[in-house]
Amino acid sequence: MMVPLNPFPAAALPSFKKPPIELIVGQVRVPLIPALLEATGIGPFQAKAGAAYPHLRREDQFAFRLSRNEEPRGDAIRLWRFEDMSHQWTLTVAPEFVALEAKEYQRFFEFRDRLVEAAQWLREGYKSSIRVRVGLRYVDRFAADKYPDLPDEWLTQANPAVLGLLQQAPTYEQKSFLEHRFALGQSLGLTFRATATRGTQDELVLDTDAYDTSETDLSNLAEVLDALKHMNYSAFAWAAGDLIDLLERE
Predict the structure, then answer these.
(1) How far apart are CA 163 and CA 6, in angstroms?
(2) What pTM value is reported for the model?
(3) Which residues pair with 212 in a beta bridge?
């Protein structure tokens, strides 16, 4: 397995009965596929994906560009969203990327293999065999409405480094936000965000986004995703601290 540079201590990957995952998104960016700019261009991908993801809808999003000497201009970006029968898995296809989104999964290899398969469909349908960026993002959340058995003052069991000034005046309602970006070598990176809230319901949200900007073929995509998963989990484990011990293992 490829082991990338990592700013956080390596951590084992346990299996939890109820992981704190709120969202996981994996994205593979590719050079522009002109066919996907056309209304009928999704046909080759749909032929591959339709059996596993039968629900399809088109979305047009607008990206506004500002220039000092020109009027603001909006460019339409066409997206295609595929969902499986259970609506647990969503594939998004655009002229420059394919992405997979889920709210939960049982084993990471299931998520990884679905994204690798989707990238393969791009390659087979459009001769797109080069990737320019791979990203893997996790949003994890701790709160009493998700884990009713959390003890009092559970928030203090997180790593103090992510709590900011919440520890300075713990009786006040308040919110702390931390964002840090790591450039790791020439092509790897990690964006780490933590939001801690003291209030009617205490809450901790950990948002980690690991990525690889190497421009290469798709042959080792599964290996890259495994490495990014370990980067994300190491950051999560460091931030969650002793909260991990409150999660029930499988």
Answers:
(1) 22
(2) 0.90
(3) 134, 188
